[in-house]
Design a protein that fits this description.
The complex is a heterodimer. In chain A, helix 1 packs antiparallel against helix 2 and helix 15 (about 555-575) packs across helix 16. A four-stranded antiparallel β-sheet of chain A has the order 4-1-8-7, with no helix packed on it. In chain A, strands 3-2-5-6 form a four-stranded antiparallel β-sheet. Chain A is an alpha+beta fold. In chain A, a hairpin with a 4-residue loop joins strand 9 and strand 10. Chain A starts with a helix and ends with a helix. The radius of gyration of chain A is 46 Å and the shape is extended. Chain A has helices spanning about 1-10, 15-45, 75-90, 190-195, 200-210, 215-235, 255-260, 295-300, 310-315, 315-320, 350-360, 410-420, 450-455, 540-550, 555-575, 580-600, 600-615, 620-635, 635-655, 660-670, 675-680, 690-695, 705-710; strands spanning about 95-105, 115-125, 135-145, 160-165, 175-190, 265-270, 280-285, 325-330, 375-385, 390-395, 425-430, 435-440. Chain B is mostly beta strands. In chain B, the strands form seven sheets. Chain B has a five-stranded mixed β-sheet with strand order 10-11-12-13-17, with helices on one face. A four-stranded antiparallel β-sheet of chain B has the order 1-29-28-27, with no helix packed on it. In chain B, strands 2-3-4-5 form a four-stranded antiparallel β-sheet, with no helix packed on it. The chains are: A alpha+beta, B mainly beta. Chain B: Keywords: Nucleus, Repeat, Repressor, Transcription, Transcription regulation, WD repeat.
Chain lengths: ~725, ~425
């Protein structure tokens, strides 16, 4: 490692000089080294990628796809038949289980006693459509006595061996068996002399095995035990008559509580794909006391998955207090092996050792350029403006930062360059091997280069929290890239002055996070294509416009209504020039004409046309055309009826409320401008009956008295 | 109730021996405090902060139990009891100060126990406010906190993780409130002049209250009434605004926020942009309005004018809000002393029977609201010789028995209710 090496280097310098030199060295290399150390252990614990799949790490890939080349579809059948033949060969072999003990902390006092283990094979068959549950077949294959809480390593106490011929569970024996499960049922048993003792004494043992809750049942169950024990005792070779149907299939799950088995546990031998899950080894099987509710265990864990912290899990309690059956399992061609090897705990290897050993199985490093690899790799650390250097030699191709065995010089250099970009590496050929100049990469861009969505994902996503499985962000860029790679050659690591090609980014577009303008929320990737942010004519502007018009005190209700309709219309279409006003007028009539008539705003509109004319925005022709357009709409009979009734009602209510209205109105009329008269004369046909009051009225028929009051005042 | 620490002179002998030397640090100096610049012309009360002026301890409705000090030494701005815990369940409260959110439990008749503490990775973060809710699926408690960075953090106390965070506010967040009827709706109140309502279950921004007729300056506080029908908000623009939540668009958007699937939709969620409050007034206060609460149909609000005003929008008998209404009816004013800096919050208990506010000299004023005539509300003052820093917020347990106050010098003070009727023999500060 870089830090270590400096100790040896500065032997002849003064102490201060060495110290200062060390400081400089640390300054340059300490921080990146710490970062890479951290990344190393993170990659060991939860790798982001596998080194062996990298194209320059061919040396680490143990699979060669040689048989892909001669593969023919027609050979498939042959292969399968060969495989099944091999399987039938295996049928001649045996599964040996050597029980080494039954452990239960609660049974402290009974150490040395024996427990009886009966082993079953439960075959789960394929479920037929009409059956509600898969049919089970249960076959007892043997009963053994196992000592309870044996001392850790001693050979004392009986160790029972169970041998099961494999033909019991070959997959192809005619039945459509889905999976095989080994079921162990352990009943507590005492020495032979104990069996004759009064019930009370046996009860003591049972109670200590946490059965207090079912006290009345206890006696029954222990009696049952007794019976079963007798059965077991009478036929020690009961595997010969192996089909002892113990209480039917019922005893498989619920049986433990009532029938008298004290503990049971199960192991799946073959999963539904026929793969053997039981490899040879030492097993510690957690057993369930009979009181445990079986159905809850059967529930799919996926359905109610929830996040648990280490704190809530209480793992240690789970594993210490539970009864455990220990046994050794192996597959063998011999009938039985009585040689008993008890499990011994091997000390865990320190991480460095694991790292070093894990990849060193093939000690044949090969440089790409020269097959007979140079064994010496000199790392020359250059620092302090290239004025100082320290050298460290290594005899293999392990990366100094991640201890990764790169197997070859080319792979090592490529790895260093790509995975440790905070440094820059230059390869220099050396008579004894290779020299690698290491210096700090001044151009390293340490800014966040990942998916910007990860920065805001809630909860903080895969990029930052590695506490558990997290859903990746929804953006996925599918890359199919087959770049033309130059032939691997060490020359690419030599010092290059001019042409270094920057790594191209394969993903187009910005790697940035955008935000919605109104809410400032980050824009999700699937929302990017849609422009959601229309700037003009937003709802609040429309609302504000209407409220501001409502605030006018010198304008009557009808005028306000027309102003709102007109202003919103102009805002919506964003008319910008005088020349567009004629167009605006006709579009206004098209979209709002009927509404305008319903609101009884005919005269207000005509007045509006006149004022537009007065301001020189439209000519008389346009005024004429618009009025004609509106009058054409009035030809609709239903509309006419409504107009007439509205006007009638307006008149009546006006007369009722304001008997003197006519005089007031006429007075007002005198003050009102000339174009009002003009407008009333231009509105000819349908409003012939309207009085002079109506010619001033801007109120819609639906407006109530309050509105009228204000237009009169 | 006879307890060893019955009188205030026995300080925190049982709980704070190691704190005694540090407690003198809390000099109440506001100079370095970003939250204290109040445009109040008056600066009196500074020199009154002498221990001699403290009146002799009297029997009061609440008696001092203990205090403790968080080691960051920075002001604690927020404290809230978990009001979802009923009688018989532990009394749990959370504080927000510096970049910490701490969860404490009040042991019966005894000290305060620290349960959990969360620290923001950003040392620059300064949490201002916390709010409690619960997960509607599992029933586990949820704690929301926010502050100067404008990021709302949601903590699951059962898994001890920050399970969610919401960004979007352009500025600091001054207060968080959960909807009283829907524990998934969170209201946040920000320096960016706007309020936002989030659905924390589906991570959707339901509504944003801000814009042309909304607050013109920092929003400092807000509250949702018990029935969940109206929000009242207040801020630095001296105004109080009421926003209805019962409009058709709000109701449909809230229900839509539960069903909206962002990954199936090309367009973002149609967040309601509410620019127009249903009622607005500037007639209650003449300065920053920094705290507001609903009291039934009335509103309690305070500014830095030494008074909490109980008022209602419109005329006294008017039931409906009117948009352009210029009338307000002031029901009652609760006066107190020496509280002229801003960002000082008062609190009501769950049943809205006790009102408490602290002042800048470390005194707490408590009113008993459980009376028929508001003018009869009696005030008692809680004084402790070592509590001299400004009290930023108070919190009252669900049953009203425990009062917690938090100060600028990172201290947390616990006062327990004594058996006799509240405030009866107390020093009368009622005007």
């Amino acid at each position: 490692m870089p830090q270590k090496k400096k100790d040896g280097s500065g032997g002849d310098k003064g102490v201060n000089e060495v110290h200062a030199d060390h400081e400089l060295f640390l300054q340059a290399f300490e921080k990146p080294t710490q970062i890479y150390r951290y990344l190393r252990s993170r990659n060991v614990l939860s790798p982001v990628f596998l080194q062996r799949t990298l194209y320059y790490m061919r040396g680490r890939m143990s699979r060669s796809h040689k048989n892909r080349m001669p593969f023919k579809l027609d050979t498939l059948l042959d292969k399968v038949t060969q495989k099944s033949e091999r399987q039938s060969e295996r049928a001649a072999s045996y599964l040996n289980i050597v029980f080494t003990g039954f452990h239960d902390d609660k049974l402290e006092g009974v150490s040395g006693d024996v427990a009886r283990v009966e082993t079953f094979i439960v075959k789960m068959c394929h479920k037929k459509r009409k059956e509600s549950s898969a049919p089970l077949m249960q076959v007892s294959v043997g009963t053994q006595d196992v000592s309870i809480n044996p001392m850790s390593s001693g050979g004392e106490g009986p160790s029972a061996t169970l041998t099961i011929p494999t033909h019991n569970f070959t997959v192809t024996n005619g039945h459509q068996v889905k999976s095989y499960v080994l079921v162990f049922k352990v009943s507590l048993l005492h020495d032979q002399e104990n069996a004759g003792e009064p019930v009370a004494k046996r009860r003591r043992v049972s109670r200590s095995s946490s059965q207090d809750s079912v006290d009345p049942n206890l006696q029954v169950s222990s009696l049952h035990n007794h019976n079963n024990n007798n059965n077991g005792g009478s036929g020690p070779g009961s595997e010969g008559g192996g089909m002892r149907n113990d209480g039917g299939p019922n005893s498989g799950n619920g049986g433990g509580g009532g029938v008298g088995w004290s503990y049971c546990g199960e192991l799946v031998m073959f999963d539904r794909h026929g793969r053997c899950l039981l490899t040879a080894g030492h097993y510690e099987l957690m057993l369930e006391p009979p009181g445990a509710s079986q159905p809850s265990n059967k529930a799919s864990p996926k359905k109610n998955a929830s996040w648990e912290s280490i704190d809530t899990l209480k793992l240690d309690g789970m594993f210490t207090n539970i009864p455990m059956l220990k046994f050794t399992l192996n597959w063998n061609s011999e009938n039985s092996n009585t040689a008993l090897e008890r499990p011994r705990l091997r000390p865990l290897k320190p991480l460095d050792l694991v790292l070093a050993n894990s990849t060193s199985t093939k000690p044949k490093p090969q440089g790409v350029a020269s097959p007979e690899a140079p064994q010496l790799v000199l790392y020359q650390f250059v620092y302090n403006n290239n004025s100082r250097q320290q050298t460290e030699a290594r005899r293999d191709f392990h990366c100094p930062w991640c201890s990764l065995n790169c197997m070859a010089l080319y792979s090592l250099l490529k790895h260093l360059k790509l995975c440790h970009a905070r440094f820059s590496f230059t390869y220099v050929p050396h008579p004894k091997g290779a020299r690698i100049d290491v210096s700090l990469n001044e151009c390293y861009d340490g800014s966040y280069a990942g998916n910007p969505q990860d920065l805001v994902a809630t909860p903080a996503g895969f990029a930052f929290s590695r506490s558990g499985p997290t859903r990746r962000t929804p953006t996925t860029s599918v890359l199919v890239c087959r770049p033309k790679r130059p032939k691997p050659s060490l020359s690419e690591f030599l010092e290059q002055d001019d042409d270094f090609d920057l790594p191209r980014s394969y993903i187009l577009g910005h790697n940035r996070l955008y935000h919605h303008t109104m809410t400032c929320l980050p824009i999700q990737p699937h929302e990017l294509d849609e422009d959601s942010e229309g700037e003009h004519d937003s709802e609040w502007v429309r609302q504000k416009t209407q409220m501001m018009i409502d605030d006018f005190s010198d304008v009557n209700e009808g005028e306000k209504e027309l102003m709102k309709m007109w202003n919103l219309h102009v805002m919506k279409y964003n008319f910008v020039g005088d020349s567009q006003i004629p167009l605006a007028c006709s579009m206004f009539l098209e979209s709002h004409g009927v509404e305008l008539l319903h609101k009884n705003l005919y005269r207000n509109f005509v007045l509006h046309m006149i004022s537009l004319h007065n301001f020189g925005l439209i000519g008389t022709g346009i005024v004429y055309r618009c009025v004609l357009q509106l009058q054409a709409m009035m030809q609709d009979p239903s509309l006419q009826k409504q107009l007439a009734s509205g006007w009638e009602e307006q008149r009546r209510s006006a007369k009722r409320l304001f008997p003197a209205i006519t005089t007031v109105k006429q007075e007002q009329l005198r003050h009102s401008s000339a174009h009002h008269n003009h407008s009333s004369s231009s509105s000819s046909s349908s409003s012939s009956s309207s009085s002079s009051w109506l010619s001033e009225s801007k109120s819609s028929p639906t407006k109530n008295d309050g509105d009228k009051k204000c237009c009169v005042q | 109730m006879t307890l060893p620490n019955g009188d205030t002179n026995s300080v925190a002998d049982d709980s704070g021996d190691d704190l005694d030397d540090t407690s003198s640090v809390g000099s109440g100096s506001n100079a370095d405090n970003s939250r204290s610049g109040t445009p109040t012309p008056r600066r009196k009360g500074r020199n009154k902060r002498k221990r001699k002026k403290v009146p002799p301890p009297q029997k009061m409705g609440y008696k001092f139990v203990c205090y403790l000090k968080e080691d960051h030494g920075q002001p604690i701005f927020g404290v809230q009891f978990n009001q979802y815990l009923r009688d018989g369940q532990p009394l749990v409260f959370a504080t927000a100060g510096n970049n910490r959110v701490s969860v404490y439990q009040c042991i019966e008749d005894g000290p305060i126990k620290l349960l959990q503490c969360y620290s923001d990775p950003d040392p620059e973060e300064n949490f201002y406010t916390v709010a409690w809710s619960y997960d509607t699926e599992t029933g586990r408690p949820i704690l929301a906190a926010a502050g100067s960075r404008g990021v709302i953090r949601i903590f699951s106390l059962a898994t001890m993780q920050c399970v969610k965070h919401f960004i979007g506010h352009g500025q600091a967040i001054n207060e968080l409130k959960f909807h009283p009827r829907d524990p998934n709706l969170l209201l946040s109140v920000s320096k960016d002049h706007a309020l936002r309502m989030w659905n924390i279950r589906t991570d959707i921004l339901v509504a944003s209250f801000g814009g042309v007729e909304a607050h013109r300056d920092e929003v400092l506080s807000a509250d949702i009434d018990v029935e969940g029908r109206c929000i009242v908000s207040c801020g630095m623009d001296h105004s109080l605004k009421i926003w209805k939540l019962t409009t058709d668009t709000m109701l449909s958007t809230i229900s839509q926020s539960y069903t909206f699937n962002p990954s199936r939709s090309v367009r973002p969620f149609p967040t309601v942009q509410q620019n127009f409050p249903d009622f607005s007034t500037r007639d209650i206060h003449r300065n920053y309005v920094d705290c507001v609460r609903w009291l039934g149909r009335f509103i309690l609000s305070k500014s830095c004018e030494n008074t909490i005003v109980c008022w209602k929008p419109g005329l006294l008998n008017q039931a409906e809000l009117k948009h352009n209404d210029t009338n307000v009816t002031i029901i009652q004013k609760f006066d107190y002393k020496e509280c002229e800096i801003w960002f000082m919050r008062f609190a009501l208990d769950y049943w809205q029977k006790v009102l408490a506010v602290g002042n800048q000299l470390g005194r707490t004023f408590v009113w008993d609201l459980d009376i028929s005539d508001p003018s009869q509300a009696r005030c008692s003052t809680l004084i402790h010789p070592k509590c001299v820093a400004p009290i930023r917020q108070t919190a009252i347990s669900r049953n009203g028995n425990i009062l917690i106050t938090v100060c600028d010098d990172a201290t947390i003070w616990r006062w327990d209710r004594v058996a006799q009727p509240l405030g009866a023999p107390a020093c009368g500060t009622v005007d």
